[in-house]
Structure prediction request, 305 residues.
Amino acid sequence: MNLERRNGILILLLAAGTSLWAQTSTDSPDGSEDRLSLNQSKLKVLLGMDRKEYFPGELAEFTVRIQNPTSETLDVPKPFTRETGTIWLLEKNNSRAKTWGMEYGTTAEPEPPIQLEDSVEQPSVPRVVPSVRLAPGQEIVKTFHFYELQSNTVAWNTIPDRAGQFRLKYWDSTVDFQVVLPVFEGMVKIDLPGLEPPGTRQTTAAYAFVLGWQGKHFLCLQKVPFPMTAAEILKMADGQLVDGGLPFGRYSRLFESEVPIVSLRGESDNNRNITLRWGQHGENKRSFLEDEWRIHDEKHPRAAR
Prediction:
């Protein structure tokens, strides 16, 4: 049947409990999984990403669009829960793809199967599949940032740190993207006041850097402060990054230029608002409030002011 069980490879697990529904959700413990699966097959599910090409470790977002194209109300598995499926991250022509004789293979080892029934000492517990009713023409749209996802298989919840062709799969829908290796063109460290690790004199910093790709130059900023000095940038003689050569994850592009971005410098005020300047005389400038440039979530909360 079409429902994905949890004895598969759980990658980029979506957050449960998202409030998206126009109608009341129900649960289906009584053998109606086949009906839910049949109704699920009638849905139109589309995945989209904010880019087709990414740099290694870059932040990304993707959108799941679920439509009921039929003329009837459908009781279907409720999306974005553990019980009804996960996002799978696949890589083209990796070792598992070759082993299985497939074009794309998973990027992580399978988890141990999860027992769906209790031991003989206790009665069996029926599998409960959360469901939701979608009216004719009703559409559910949800956009996820990678850093919001619960995962222990994709480092930093970002795009992979190596070049390749990848695929995200949710239910029976897929979206493909590519990771490319740009040229590293420069970097500046920006000390951030008030974020020093307790009991140390070490400075916490943000890093801005420039990456070049196909004749364009991209000003990027690490969105999570570093409580340490960044590792060495690993690149080839011409400056092109190697796989795993960029020590940053959770960064985004801020600015794109047709001309080289030179003499990059940066500074932070006491509220950790950042100003970046570049050009021979610092004639180019971009300023960002802390809430604009920094990721704030339960893993990286706001610092006390």
In short: Residues 33-40 form the longest helix (8 residues). DSSP finds three helices and 18 strands in the chain.
